[in-house]
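[Discussion] Sanity-checking designs against the backbone

I'm trying to build intuition for which residues belong where. Below is a structure token string of 337 positions. I'd appreciate it if someone posts a full sequence so I can compare it with mine line by line.
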């Protein structure tokens, strides 16, 4: 591939990039292509949500007990069907499904990857036309080829991730994905139906002044988090002007901004019920992988990186603090204080 060419599509880039892996077979590029195709189809519905009967709830709840929006169900079905028919996916786990789905056709059983996803992150923002997203995570299965995928294929630490990323359906539609070779962003050109390379080798800025948290829940996050928020709001002598608070309520959008502008996104433990909110396998791990491959850090609040947490359940939740390394260190000081 000539790196000086102006237009580089996602499919072309993934083939070129994955060829750099020593044991490359082209299968990862195919899984990424299939995820890109699914998200282009989801994008079509998202963009017309106000015009077709796709807004609103379907009257059912998912395994999280969350009311399912019609777009949630549509996005989930699209991703499952495209990956079921992929030549290189052995199975999926989704926020919307109680259990994982192991594809049992011969081609799928001989595929080496499994995919986990939140098909439509930020559903509560659908009806108000705010940014929403799709989050995906690709792991190499641990079970033998030729057999159906098993739970252990999904219950792997984030540090084993092969590729992970997200699509943000915002003012433009962008797909961002990370591998150990780096993080790259692709903007959807609907006139040709292609995700085109627009943000090469993405890195967090050295630091940032934007903190993102649902401030309305701060009474539930405990005294130490509140002390850190006070630090963010006071005039920080050593760091210049006070921080800015931004919170969209879609993890993909809040963390995409963090990747571009720097800063810190937090969803701490709710100490009133000892429950974290965000899911490990298909929200925190993939977003942490992207941010850490882009030079940032992600922690559960103690000394553990999110990517080192050993999953025990498909829908396990963890607290998360993610963003610039210096800000992660600062928040850790307060949490230990
Ligand atoms: P809250 C969206 O429902 C989501 O899972 C994440 O995308 C987002 O960061 C978080 O929940 C928002 O939660 O409690 O602030 O509305």
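Best answer:
Here's mine. Compare freely.
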């Amino acid at each position: 591939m000539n790196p000086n060419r102006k237009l580089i599509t996602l499919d072309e880039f993934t083939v070129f990039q994955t060829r750099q892996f020593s044991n490359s077979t082209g299968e990862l590029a195919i899984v990424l292509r299939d995820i890109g195709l699914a998200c282009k189809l989801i994008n079509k519905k998202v963009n017309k949500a106000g015009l077709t009967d796709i807004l609103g709830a379907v009257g059912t709840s998912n395994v999280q007990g969350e009311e399912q929006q019609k777009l949630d169900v549509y996005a989930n079905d699209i991703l499952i069907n495209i990956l079921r028919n992929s030549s290189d996916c052995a199975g999926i786990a989704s926020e919307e499904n109680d259990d994982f789905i192991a594809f049992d056709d011969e081609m799928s059983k001989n595929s080496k990857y499994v995919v986990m996803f939140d098909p439509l992150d930020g559903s509560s923002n659908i009806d108000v036309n705010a940014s929403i997203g799709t989050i995906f995570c690709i792991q190499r299965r641990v079970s033998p080829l030729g057999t159906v995928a098993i739970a252990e294929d999904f219950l792997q630490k984030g540090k084993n991730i092969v590729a992970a990323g997200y699509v943000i359906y915002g003012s433009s539609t962008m797909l961002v994905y990370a591998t150990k070779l780096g993080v790259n962003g692709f903007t959807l050109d609907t006139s040709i139906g292609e995700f085109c390379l627009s943000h090469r080798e993405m890195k967090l800025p050295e630091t940032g002044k934007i903190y993102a948290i649902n401030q309305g829940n701060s009474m539930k996050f405990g005294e130490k988090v509140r002390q850190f928020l006070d630090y963010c709001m006071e005039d920080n002598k050593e760091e210049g002007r006070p921080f800015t608070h931004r919170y969209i309520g879609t993890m993909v959008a809040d963390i995409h901004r963090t990747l571009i502008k720097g800063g810190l996104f937090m969803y701490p433990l709710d100490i009133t019920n000892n429950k974290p909110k965000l899911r490990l396998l298909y929200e925190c791990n993939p977003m942490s992988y992207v941010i850490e491959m882009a030079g940032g850090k992600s922690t559960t609040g103690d000394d553990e990186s999110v990517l080192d947490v050993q999953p025990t359940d498909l829908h396990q939740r963890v607290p998360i603090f993610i963003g610039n390394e210096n800000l992660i260190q600062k928040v850790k000081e307060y949490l230990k204080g």
